[in-house]
Specification:
This protein has 488 residues and is an alpha/beta fold. It has 16 helices and 13 strands. The protein has a domain of 238 residues: Type I PLP-dependent aspartate aminotransferase-like (Major domain) (Aspartate Aminotransferase, domain 2, 3-Layer(aba) Sandwich), CATH 3.40.640.10. Helices cover 40% and strands 16% of the residues. α4 runs parallel beside α12, α12 crosses α13 and α14 crosses α15.
C-alpha cells in the first residue's frame, strides 16, 4: 500500500476500470470529436496515461481537493464554497466556480498537531516582534545574506531539542529530503528504503546516483534479508563492496499512521554497519513524553540514528525542515546541499515561531502549556482512533499517532465521503490514486491538541451518519450493517 509515488512507477488502475475509461474516451471521440489539445505539427505536450486519467477520472471529482479557505487553518476554518460546472468545450470533465459563500467547518485535515498554527497561538507575540525587527523575508539564500541571528538560534535549539550535535535548517520541508539525500548518497552508495517512504525521499535518493533497493513496509525481517543479499552480491558493476549503505525510514508514515519499529531497525543497522536516516516529519513534536519524536517514543538513543530529518510545518506551525547529525556531517551538507546554497532562506518570523514553539514544548517558557498540548494530542488521537474502530471502521495506525487513516477503498466512496462531510461542516482530506493504489483510497484525519472532546464526538457522529449512506463501516457484521442506518 504505497502512500506516495514509490521507487517503482505507480500502478495503473485494474483492467476493468481502465477499460471503462477507454470506452468513454472512444465514444467521446466518435460522437463529439473530443481529443487532447495538440497544436498542428506538434507532439502532445502531456503524457499519455496521466492526461487520460486526469480527464476521465480526476476531472470529474477534483472539487474534493484544493478547496480554498478564507481563515486561519486552526481548529475551525472557513471553506470557500464552490460548485461544479460542466464546460461547453470539455463536457467529459468539469470546472468549479466560487459561489460567494463560505462554510464554517471543523478542520480535521491540517497538520496543526499542537495548535501552534492557530491565530491565537501563544507564540504570536514573539513572532510579531520578529516581524517588526527582521521583516517578512531576508530576500536571499542562506549562503549569501540569508542568515540572521534567528537562523543560528533556530539551528541550536533544533539540535538540542532532538539530541544531536548540530543541525541545519532548509527553507522547504520537501526540499530537505530532496536536496540533502543526494549529497549523502552518491554513486557507490546503496539506499535501502521502506516501500512506503515519502516522495521527497524517493526523489532525493534517485538524484544522487546511488543504487536503491526497497524492503517491505515496516518488515524488519525483509530489511535484514535485503541487507544480507546486498552485502553478499556487492556492487552490480564490479561486485566490489558498497562504499556505504543507508537505511531510510520514516518515524510515522503519513498515509498509514504507523510508527516504524525503530529499536529493531537500529539493532540491524549496528549488526551490519549501515547508516540510518529517519524522516520525522510527522513524529517530531507530536509523539514522545516530551515531544522529541520517534526516538523518545520508542526508547531509542538519538545517537544511534546517524541522521534525523524533520519538518516545521506540522507540530510547530511554521515552514521548512531540518537535518540534525554530527557537526562534521552538517558542515558537509551546509557546503554542498542545493537546499543550503540555492534555496531561499526561511523567513525570520518563521524562525522565531520554531524557537518559541520548541522552547514552550520543553517548558523553557516557564509554563506547562507545552506539556498540556502534548497530553492533549495523545489523548485526542487515541480517543478518535479507538472510537472509529468501535463503530466498525477500518482504521490504520498505531496508538499515539496523530495521523488517523480511515479506509474507504473505492474511488466513489472517496468523493461522497468528502462532499457529504463538507455539507455537514466537517473538512477532511481524502486520498486516492496516484497517491495510493486506486482500490485502497482513504480519508486521512489529522488530529490536533486544539480539538475539544465535544468537537471530536460530534465529528464522529457525522462520520457515522455519512458512512451509513455510502457503506464504509467494513468491520461490522453484514446483518448489523444492513440495519445500522436505524441506529439511535
Amino acid at each position: 500500500m504505497n502512500n506516495h509515488p514509490s521507487f517503482s512507477s505507480a500502478k495503473p488502475p485494474p483492467f476493468h476500470h481502465y477499460a471503462l475509461f477507454q470506452i468513454r474516451e472512444i465514444l467521446s471521440k466518435i460522437f463529439k470529436g473530443q481529443t487532447v489539445y495538440t497544436p498542428d505539427g506538434y507532439a502532445p505536450i502531456t503524457s499519455d496515461f496521466e492526461d487520460f486519467y486526469s480527464r476521465r477520472a480526476y476531472g470529474r471529482i477534483h472539487d474534493c481537493w484544493n478547496r480554498p479557505i478564507s481563515s486561519c487553518a486552526s481548529t475551525w476554518i472557513d471553506v470557500i464554497e464552490r460548485e461544479r460546472i460542466y464546460t461547453e468545450y470539455k463536457t467529459y470533465t468539469c470546472d468549479v466556480k466560487e459561489t460567494g459563500r463560505t462554510i464554517r467547518a471543523l478542520n480535521l485535515g491540517s497538520y496543526n498537531y499542537l495548535g501552534f498554527g492557530d491565530a491565537d497561538s501563544p507564540t504570536r507575540d514573539p513572532v510579531l516582534a520578529a516581524l517588526e525587527q527582521f521583516s517578512v523575508t531576508t530576500s536571499s539564500v542562506r549562503s549569501d545574506a540569508g542568515t540572521t541571528v534567528l537562523h543560528r538560534e533556530t539551528e541550536k535549539v533544533v539540535s538540542r531539542y532532538v539530541g544531536k550535535e548540530d543541525a541545519i535548517i532548509i527553507g522547504m520541508g520537501y526540499g530537505t529530503n530532496s536536496t540533502v539525500l543526494n549529497v549523502l548518497c552518491t554513486p557507490g552508495t546503496l539506499i535501502i528504503s521502506d516501500a512506503n517512504n515519502h516522495a521527497s525521499i524517493v526523489n532525493g535518493s534517485r538524484s544522487g546516483g546511488a543504487k536503491i533497493q526497497v524492503f517491505k513496509h515496516n518488515n524488519v525481517k525483509d530489511l535484514e534479508r535485503v541487507i544480507r543479499t546486498a552485502i553478499i552480491a556487492g556492487q552490480p558493476d564490479n561486485r566490489g563492496p558498497w562504499d556505504k549503505i543507508f537505511i531510510i525510514v520514516e518515524g510515522i508514515y503519513s498515509m498509514e499512521g504507523e510508527c516504524c519499529p525503530l529499536p529493531e531497525i537500529v539493532e540491524i543497522k549496528k549488526k551490519y554497519g549501515c547508516y540510518l536516516y529517519v524522516d520525522e516529519a510527522h513524529s517530531i513534536g507530536a509523539v514522545g513524553k516530551t515531544g522529541r519524536g520517534v526516538c523518545e517514543f520508542t526508547g531509542v538513543n538519538p545517537q544511534d540514528v546517524d541522521v534525523l530529518m524533520g519538518t516545521f510545518t506540522k507540530s510547530f506551525g511554521a515552514v521548512g525542515g531540518y537535518i540534525a547529525a554530527d557537526k562534521d556531517v552538517i558542515d558537509y551538507i551546509r557546503s554542498t546541499s542545493l537546499g543550503s546554497l540555492y534555496s531561499s532562506s526561511i523567513s525570520p518570523p518563521s524562525c522565531q515561531q520554531i524557537i518559541s514553539a520548541m522552547k514552550m514544548i520543553l517548558g523553557e517558557d516557564g509554563t506547562d502549556l507545552g506539556a498540556k498540548k502534548l497530553q492533549a494530542i495523545y489523548d485526542n488521537a487515541n480517543f478518535f482512533r479507538d472510537r472509529l474502530r468501535e463503530l466498525g471502521f477500518h482504521v490504520l495506525g498505531h496508538s499515539g499517532s496523530p495521523v488517523v487513516p480511515l479506509m474507504l477503498y473505492m474511488p466513489s466512496n472517496v468523493v461522497q465521503f468528502s462532499r457529504l462531510l463538507l455539507q455537514s461542516n466537517i473538512a477532511v482530506v481524502v486520498v486516492g490514486f496516484p497517491a495510493t493504489p486506486i482500490l485502497t483510497s482513504r480519508a486521512r484525519f489529522c488530529i490536533s491538541a486544539g480539538h475539544t472532546r465535544k468537537e471530536l464526538e460530534d465529528a464522529i457522529d457525522k462520520i457515522r451518519e455519512v458512512s451509513n449512506i455510502i457503506g464504509t463501516r467494513y468491520l461490522l457484521p453484514n446483518f448489523f450493517f444492513r440495519f445500522s442506518q436505524y441506529e439511535a
